[in-house]
Structures are given as structure tokens and as C-alpha cells.
């Protein structure tokens, strides 16, 4: 698919394609052409030109999402290209903007917004090297620290110290880059490049380090907080966090697995849960909440009823919800505003079929993403599911891997899915008849790949043919056996893998020590 380019954009490409000529000529370029030249340089991966454009940026703001997004000159959105060459050139150009010896009166730049970059699975850049969120956090922190060292040692133009640029970024901090980010945040006041954390993701951090760094980020500016995987945050820690720190602008909150576990609740824990619900109720901007893999049986109402703003995204996958929880969700004011809903890991047809369909009916006019993985949806439930999904005309994404559906049932369901006009992405299960007879669901990790791959390929071709015959080649259908792509996990999987091995080794050593003492 070719995107049309204006004559201006074609001219800009021609100009930047000769890097040496473009760099020499920038001084004669009109200021309002810099955004056009930046996008053209990004498309052609002209790192040196990108660096010089940023180093000499003549405008008040630099918003990378807007610069790379659809424009009149070139409609294609390049913000999904996390090209390492381009982004590194961009950030080093920003550092050199500060150090550039031109008059401080020429330097107008006040705000740099790096939050518009989107990390996706498939990259189209020629270099094939990406710079993910973790690496962007690492590089910006390093540049800020290096900049301060240089300014303290070198004889700089006094005007350099008057430069003050707010750099909006989504930080991603793990054990490996923790010290570097802490140093950059501690010295923020002295540095001309001032890191402004809009979204914060932490993984593989001790609680002590998490609490320390979250205070340094200026939580009053935070819009998104993700505490995931190897941060052992439990309910009492969450209460402490909310009591110590206010998040007035927080719109999205993701909590790690097992934050809540009602199976071992005491009377004190019930009060703690009430307090957490009340604190979340004070977050008037909160519209996205992810609580996956916590045990919340019978407590959803206590946690969510204090919220004054309707949720647009709710992930309660594998939270052991009961009928009372589902009834609360179906009858709450949130139901009419939910654009993304994840109920994976619940036996919906067995536990609360009518309540679930009531919830689906209430959110049908706005629902864009629905995830029902490992929900025991069988062939006998497909007609009911089609009936429930029919009003969901805005649905863009439907994920239902891990359900025991036959090839025939999938074909029937796909014939219906073709009719949903906004649908773009479908994640479907390996058909039950591709597995050995007697396979039990949910399928464990050891057995998930033990299916007839040739038969699966034939069925997948037939399902794609159904889409093609309905002129729905715009729909991507796939079977990610081990879950959807997660850019953050993909980028740090080596560190997380090492952490898990270390944890396993420590557990084994403790067990062996205890066993030896018993002996």
C-alpha cells in the first residue's frame, strides 16, 4: 500500500537524501519547514540530518508524536517506527541543542514531548534495530547526567545555563537502569533538560527502590502508573503508597499479580481494601484499571464503587470473580462506558452467562476491545456469543484464545465476525480437534504446542479465506500461543529471565538448607 506524498514532501525527501548538502544548508531553511524536513528525514532514516535538525530546532515545542503522525503532506503515521538510528540521533541532537554555542536568544525550545512514540511488534525501518521504552529511558537519563558533567567541567557560554527544556517521557525502570534514572531525576533542577515523567512503568525492582523513585518522578504529573511482574507489591503496600503520595492526574493504573488475595483476608484487610477503594475514588481522572491475577472474589463492589469517574478500560482477568462481582459490573455506571474489557480466566458460560451478556449489552455501544481467553467457551455457546456480540458495532479487537472450540465452530464465528465493520484484530484458539483426543482445558504450558500443526495451518487458511471472501483483508487473525505481544516484556526479557532463574535458585537453596536441617 503506497501513501500519497505532496510535492512539498517529495522535495523535502530530495533535500535530506543528500545528508552532507542538507546539513550545510540548514541555516538557510525557513523555520516552518523544519517539521516537514524532520518527518522526511525520519522516513529515510537520515540520522545525521535528524541530529542537526533537532540541534538547531527553531520552534517553541518539539512533539515527536505530532511530527511523525499523519500530516497533509504525508498521511502515513511514522510514530510506530521506534527506529534506533532515528531516535538516538533525535536525543543526542537535543543534548547538542543545549550545548550549541548560538545565542541563547535564538533558543526558543521549551517543551519536548517524546510520549507519542508507539512500541509495536512489526517494524518497517530499514536498520531493523528498535529503541524501546526502556532504552529511551536509559539514553535520556545518561544524556542528562553527561550534560551536567560536561557543563560543570567545560567553559560554556553563560547563556547555556539559562536553557530550560521540559522533556515529557514515559519512563520504564528496572533494576538494571535504576541508578542511572535516579541520578538524572535527583539532578533535574540543575540540568537544562528536565525529565517530566508522564507515565511510569516499574518491573524487577525491590519495594524500597520503587517507593524511592516514584517520589522522585513528581507524582503530581503522572497520568499512567504500571507496577508489574517482579515488584512484590501487596495490598498493605498499596495502601501505604496511596496514603503517602497523591496522584491527582492519574488516568491509568496497573497493579502486579497477587496484589489482592481475599482467601487470606482478616478484618483488618477488609478495612485496608475499603481504604484503597476510597483513595482510588479521590483519583477523579482514573479511567483505566488493570487488576489481573489477583483474587478478588466478592470484593469488586467494595473496590470500585467509590470511583466517581466511569472506567473506560477494565482488566479483571484471572481474578476469581463470582456472580455478585459480575452482577455489580453489569449494573454499575462503568458498564455503559467500557471501551476495553478483559474477563479472561473465568468460566463465563457456567458461572454467570446471563449476567455477562447483560454487561456486554450495556457496553456494546462503546466497546472496542474484548478479551475472553480461557473462558470455557464451547461450540454450544457460539450462537449465544454471536447474539451478544452483534450490537458491538465498534469492536476493533476480539481475543479468545484458550477456549475449547472446534474448527467448525470457529468458521461459524468468523462468518459473523466479518460483519463487524470496525474489527481489525482477532486472536483465535487452536481448534480443539487439532489437539489429541481427551485434552483438558485450560491447557497447560507443557501441552499447548502439542497439536497437529498441519491441520491447524489448513484451518487457519480457511478462516482467512472467509475474511477474504467477505472483503475483510483489513482484519488480522492470529493465534499467539503464549499471549499477545508485549513490547516492554520483549525488550527486558533477558533481565526478567535472569531474575526468575536467580529467584528459583534462592528458593531451591532455602529448601535444601531446610531439608538438611531436618535431616
Automatic annotation (TrEMBL):
Recorded superkingdom: Eukaryota
Keyword Transferase in annotation: no
Keywords assigned: Leucine-rich repeat, Repeat
InterPro entries recorded: LRR_dom_sf (IPR032675), LRRC14/PRAME (IPR050694)
Keyword Ribonucleoprotein (UniProt): no
GO cellular component: cytoplasm
UniProt similarity note: Belongs to the PRAME family. LRRC14 subfamily.
Name of the molecule in the record: Leucine-rich repeat-containing protein 14B
Designated gene of the protein: Lrrc14b
Amino acid at each position: 500500500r503506497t501513501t500519497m506524498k505532496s510535492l512539498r514532501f517529495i522535495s523535502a525527501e530530495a533535500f535530506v537524501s543528500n545528508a552532507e548538502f542538507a546539513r550545510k544548508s540548514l541555516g538557510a531553511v525557513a523555520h516552518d519547514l523544519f517539521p516537514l524536513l524532520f518527518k522526511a528525514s525520519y522516513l529515510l532514516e537520515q540520522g545525521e540530518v535528524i541530529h542537526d535538525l533537532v540541534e538547531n530546532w527553531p520552534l517553541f515545542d518539539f512533539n515527536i508524536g505530532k511530527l511523525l503522525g499523519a500530516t497533509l503532506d504525508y498521511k502515513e503515521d511514522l510514530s510506530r517506527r521506534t527506529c534506533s538510528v532515528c531516535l538516538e540521533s533525535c536525543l543526542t541532537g537535543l543534548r547538542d541543542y543545549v550545548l550549541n554555542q548560538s545565542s541563547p536568544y535564538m533558543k526558543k525550545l521549551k517543551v519536548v514531548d517524546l510520549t507519542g512514540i508507539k512500541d509495536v511488534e512489526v517494524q518497517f525501518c530499514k536498520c531493523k534495530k528498535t529503541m524501546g521504552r526502556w532504552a529511551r529511558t536509559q539514553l535520556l537519563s545518561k544524556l542528562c547526567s553527561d550534560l551536567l558533567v560536561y557543563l560543570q567541567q567545560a567553559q560554556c557560554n553563560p547563556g547555556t545555563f539559562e536553557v530550560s527544556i521540559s522533556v515529557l517521557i514515559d519512563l520504564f525502570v528496572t533494576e538494571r537502569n535504576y541508578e542511572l534514572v535516579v541520578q538524572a531525576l535527583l539532578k533535574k533542577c540543575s540540568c537544562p533538560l528536565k525529565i517530566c515523567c508522564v507515565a511510569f512503568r516499574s518491573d524487577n525492582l525491590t519495594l524500597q527502590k520503587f517507593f524511592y523513585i516514584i517520589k522522585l518522578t513528581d507524582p503530581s504529573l503522572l497520568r499512567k502508573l504500571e507496577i508489574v511482574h517482579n515488584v512484590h507489591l501487596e495490598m498493605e503496600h498499596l495502601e501505604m503508597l496511596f496514603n503517602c503520595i497523591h496522584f491527582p492526574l492519574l488516568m491509568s493504573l496497573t497493579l502486579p499479580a497477587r496484589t489482592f488475595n481475599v482467601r487470606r483476608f482478616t478484618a483488618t484487610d477488609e478495612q485496608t481494601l475499603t481504604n484503597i477503594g476510597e483513595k482510588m475514588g479521590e483519583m477523579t481522572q482514573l479511567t483505566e484499571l488493570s487488576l489481573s491475577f489477583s483474587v478478588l472474589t466478592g470484593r469488586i463492589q467494595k473496590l470500585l464503587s467509590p470511583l466517581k469517574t466511569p472506567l473506560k478500560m477494565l482488566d479483571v482477568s484471572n481474578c476469581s470473580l463470582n456472580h455478585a462481582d459480575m452482577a455489580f459490573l453489569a449494573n454499575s455506571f462503568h458498564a455503559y462506558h467500557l471501551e476495553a474489557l478483559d474477563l479472561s480466566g473465568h468460566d463465563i458460560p457456567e458461572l454467570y452467562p446471563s449476567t455477562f451478556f447483560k454487561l456486554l449489552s450495556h457496553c456494546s455501544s462503546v466497546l472496542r476491545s474484548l478479551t475472553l481467553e480461557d473462558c470455557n467457551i464451547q461450540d454450544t455457546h457460539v450462537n449465544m456469543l454471536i447474539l451478544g456480540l452483534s450490537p458491538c458495532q465498534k469492536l476493533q479487537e476480539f481475543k479468545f484464545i484458550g477456549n475449547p472450540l472446534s474448527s467448525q465452530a470457529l468458521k461459524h464465528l468468523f462468518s459473523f465476525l466479518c460483519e463487524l465493520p470496525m474489527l481489525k484484530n482477532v486472536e483465535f484458539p487452536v481448534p480443539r480437534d487439532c489437539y489429541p483426543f481427551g485434552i483438558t482445558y485450560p491447557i497447560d504450558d507443557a501441552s499447548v504446542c502439542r497439536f497437529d500443526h498441519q491441520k491447524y495451518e489448513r484451518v487457519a487458511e480457511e478462516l482467512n479465506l472467509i475474511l477474504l471472501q467477505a472483503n475483510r483483508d483489513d482484519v488480522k487473525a492470529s493465534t499467539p500461543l503464549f499471549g499477545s505481544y508485549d513490547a516492554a516484556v520483549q525488550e527486558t526479557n533477558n533481565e526478567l529471565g535472569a531474575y526468575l532463574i536467580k529467584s528459583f535458585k534462592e528458593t531451591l537453596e532455602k529448601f535444601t538448607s531446610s531439608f538438611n536441617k531436618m535431616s
